[in-house]
Recover the amino acids of this structure.
């Protein structure tokens, strides 16, 4: 069994990029220090995080030398890291402000919802980029 290290690196780069955008979305677009969120704020935060997932998969694809092989793994790593980093950033802001401990429930819901949303967006992006990949596979760089 051989590992596609270039695709793994692409997934990590894409995941960190998506995580940074999701962290921005959950702490700045969604007013994390506020006690209640409006539906508009939540939808804008989801849109910003989804755009971060698209950019993350595209960046991972570029790191992987625009090859179709490994795009599914890049999308999986991007969605996982993006949702975990975004939820962590939100919990770091909300945790000290919450006296009841309900942010744990909110964090679990945010992690699950973010993972589902990013998995769908990143998977769709990977499917669209597969068509744009060169027909002839170039060998991976060592």
């Amino acid at each position: 069994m051989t590992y596609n290290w270039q695709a793994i690196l692409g997934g990590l780069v894409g995941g960190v990029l998506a995580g940074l955008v999701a962290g921005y979305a959950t702490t700045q677009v969604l007013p994390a220090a506020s006690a209640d969120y409006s539906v508009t704020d939540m939808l804008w935060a989801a849109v910003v995080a989804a755009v971060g997932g698209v950019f993350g998969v595209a960046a991972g694809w570029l790191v992987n030398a625009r090859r179709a092989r490994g795009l599914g793994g890049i999308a999986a790593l991007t969605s996982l890291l993006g949702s975990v980093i975004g939820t962590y950033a939100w919990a770091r802001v909300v945790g000290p402000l919450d006296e009841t401990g309900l942010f744990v429930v909110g964090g679990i819901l945010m992690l699950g919802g973010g993972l589902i949303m990013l998995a769908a967006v990143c998977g769709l992006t990977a499917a669209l980029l597969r068509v744009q990949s060169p027909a002839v596979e170039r060998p991976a760089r060592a």
